[in-house]
Amino acid sequence: MARSRIWQYFVLSVYAAISIPGILCLWPMPRSLKAGTTSLVLSTSFSIDLQVQDAPEDLQQAITRTQSYLRNDNLGRLVVGRGTSDLGLLQGAKELQSLRVTLSNEAGKARSISSEATAPLGSRSEEYSLVIPSAGSTATLIANSTLGLFRGLTTFEQLWYTAGEATYTLEAPIRIIDSPAFPYRGLMLDTARNFFPVSDIKRTLDAMSWAKINQFHWHVTDSQSFPLEILGFTEVAAKGAYSNSIYSPEDVKDIVSYAGARGIDVVVEIDTPGHTASIHESHPEHIACYDSSPWMTFTNEPMAGQLRFASAATTNFTAGLIEATARMFPSSLFSTGGDEVNLPCYQLDVETQRILNATGQTLQQKLEMFVQTLHGGLKGLGKTPIVWEDLILTHNVTVSNDTIVMVWSSSSAAEGIAAKNLQIVHAPSDYFYLDCGAGEWIGADPDGNSWCDPFKTWQRAYIFDPYENLTESHQHLVLGGEQVLWSEQSGPQNLDSIIWPRAAASAEVFWTGPTLPDGTPRNVQSALPRLYDLRFRMVQRGVDAIPLQPLWCALRPGACDLMDAVKVPSPHDR
Amino acid sequence: MARSRIWQYFVLSVYAAISIPGILCLWPMPRSLKAGTTSLVLSTSFSIDLQVQDAPEDLQQAITRTQSYLRNDNLGRLVVGRGTSDLGLLQGAKELQSLRVTLSNEAGKARSISSEATAPLGSRSEEYSLVIPSAGSTATLIANSTLGLFRGLTTFEQLWYTAGEATYTLEAPIRIIDSPAFPYRGLMLDTARNFFPVSDIKRTLDAMSWAKINQFHWHVTDSQSFPLEILGFTEVAAKGAYSNSIYSPEDVKDIVSYAGARGIDVVVEIDTPGHTASIHESHPEHIACYDSSPWMTFTNEPMAGQLRFASAATTNFTAGLIEATARMFPSSLFSTGGDEVNLPCYQLDVETQRILNATGQTLQQKLEMFVQTLHGGLKGLGKTPIVWEDLILTHNVTVSNDTIVMVWSSSSAAEGIAAKNLQIVHAPSDYFYLDCGAGEWIGADPDGNSWCDPFKTWQRAYIFDPYENLTESHQHLVLGGEQVLWSEQSGPQNLDSIIWPRAAASAEVFWTGPTLPDGTPRNVQSALPRLYDLRFRMVQRGVDAIPLQPLWCALRPGACDLMDAVKVPSPHDR
Question: Least C-beta-crowded within 10 Å: which of B50, B90, B259, B361?
Answer without folding.
Answer: B361
